[in-house]
Write a structure and sequence with these properties.
Radius of gyration: 20 Å
Number of helices: 4
Mean pLDDT: 75
Structural class: mainly alpha
Order of helices and strands: HHHH
Largest sheet: none
Strand content: under 5%
Length: about 90
């Protein structure tokens, strides 16, 4: 716990705690898992930070009303029901 609180993990490097990785694999994994210190732009591995669920449409008023491309037909039906409830005007 003292390492996490004092920020010691960043100084040791993430890979120091994963000895099970082979040296060849470590060479590729290390740059990806190392924490950043510059949050002004996306890292080069963050093209789709949410994986397959990353929204690639237009950031507009209805952006949160669009289901992700990777949801199934059944999940899409549940999404549409939830979206209809969300869009309903609620007055107390």
């Amino acid at each position: 716990m003292s390492l996490a609180v004092s920020g010691g993990l960043a100084g040791l490097g993430y890979m120091a705690s994963t000895p099970s990785l082979q040296a060849a694999t470590s060479r590729f994994v290390h740059p990806i898992t190392e924490p950043t210190d510059d949050f002004s732009k996306a890292e080069r591995y963050e093209a789709m930070a949410g994986g397959a669920g990353t929204f690639t449409g237009t950031a507009e008023r209805n952006a949160f009303s669009q289901p992700a491309d990777n949801v199934s037909f059944g999940e899409r039906a549940r999404f549409n029901i939830g979206n209809a409830i969300f869009r309903r005007p609620w007055v107390s």
